[in-house]
Task: inverse folding
């Protein structure tokens, strides 16, 4: 079938993206779903820094590729062997498929699914297939989703069935921003009730972490970002303090506030100075978590003496260390109960044709979560 999609043909396009238009809106062909695949009519898709890092070359991917990895929609066609989904089901895409059979999946670590990671790196669906083409030339899939399109074909292992009462623009947030931010706090850092938290980097994921820290019972939440408007947004979402981490006095200010540092620091900025600040702000015996993706060549200088002598823990977090089929429905229930107000994350609603303007806005730090709404 024919569908409109936002296609990236070249990375490192000059800014502003609103003029250079790195994403080209094209009519492409979508092959029918194959074994254990379904076709989804995409209803909403979020613009995330992980998409931006492909556009600007920080996360190289095979091209041409249809971007978009945070999305929700409705199942419209089933491939062979699909038993757990039906036409009409509402779904959220998970940006790493969980095969369920590799050693990591079998031990509850779906975020480290080995076949899923391999498929994502190769730009194919979990079964190794590509379903998007322009005439006879196939395009690559972004993280098994390619949600910047009217329709998408995905593996059933990339989809989570959800409550149909949840608006699609809200549901899309759970596929990346909420899953990554909340999961980094509760799954990776394993925040305990009454502990203090620092969140560095206040985009959609970082602000989700603030919402998650509140829901998990953090005693004190400190938000850090270079942009004043984002610090204000953090305060409106439950942070108790907001600081500019580039201020020379910021680290001492934080230690004065917390009596020596926070129990848990989580970093989402994707910049080495931000991760270093988070680690330095973590108290003796505390845990620092990073869920950001800086350029692959970036390196953090770390003192082993501090790591050992202060018994600090530094951990990575991918997919919020989540099991999507377990955690997405759980987080949605928290939203329904009013304990996870993720609707506050949406700052802009766009049409697909406005996507380049949206990514320029994201690159300038002028948005939290922008959602493309498909009619």
Result:
């Amino acid at each position: 079938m024919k569908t409109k999609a936002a296609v990236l043909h070249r990375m490192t396009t000059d800014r502003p993206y609103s003029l250079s238009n790195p994403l080209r809106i094209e009519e492409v062909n979508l092959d029918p779903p194959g074994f254990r695949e379904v076709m989804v009519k995409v209803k909403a898709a979020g613009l995330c820094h992980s998409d931006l890092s492909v556009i600007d070359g920080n996360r190289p991917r095979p091209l041409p590729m249809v971007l978009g990895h945070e999305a929700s929609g409705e199942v419209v066609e089933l491939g062979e062997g699909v038993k757990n989904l039906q036409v009409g089901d509402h779904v959220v895409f998970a940006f790493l498929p969980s095969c369920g059979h590799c050693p990591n999946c079998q031990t509850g670590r779906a975020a480290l699914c080995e076949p899923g990671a391999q498929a994502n790196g190769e730009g194919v669906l979990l079964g190794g297939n590509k379903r998007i083409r322009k005439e006879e030339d196939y395009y690559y899939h972004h993280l098994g989703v390619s949600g910047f399109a009217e329709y998408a074909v995905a593996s059933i292992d990339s989809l989570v069935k959800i409550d149909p009462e949840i608006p699609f623009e809200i549901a899309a947030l759970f596929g990346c921003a909420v899953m990554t931010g909340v999961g980094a706090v509760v799954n990776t850092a394993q925040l305990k009730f009454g502990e203090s938290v620092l969140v560095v980097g206040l985009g959609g994921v970082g602000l989700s972490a603030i919402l998650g820290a509140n829901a998990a019972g953090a005693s004190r939440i400190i938000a850090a970002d270079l942009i004043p408007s984002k610090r204000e947004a953090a305060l409106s979402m439950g942070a108790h303090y907001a600081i500019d981490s580039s201020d020379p006095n910021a680290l001492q200010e934080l230690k004065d506030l917390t009596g020596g540092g926070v129990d848990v620091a989580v970093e989402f900025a994707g910049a080495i100075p931000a991760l270093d600040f988070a680690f330095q702000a973590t108290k003796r015996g505390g845990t620092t978590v990073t869920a950001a993706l800086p350029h692959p060549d970036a390196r953090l200088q770390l003192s082993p003496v501090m790591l050992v002598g202060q018994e600090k823990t530094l951990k990575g977090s991918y997919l919020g260390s989540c099991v999507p089929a377990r955690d997405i429905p759980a987080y949605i229930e928290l939203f329904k109960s009013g304990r996870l107000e993720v609707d506050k994350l949406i700052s802009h609603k766009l049409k697909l044709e406005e996507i380049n303007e949206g990514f320029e806005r994201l690159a300038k730090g002028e948005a939290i979560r922008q959602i493309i709404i498909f009619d």
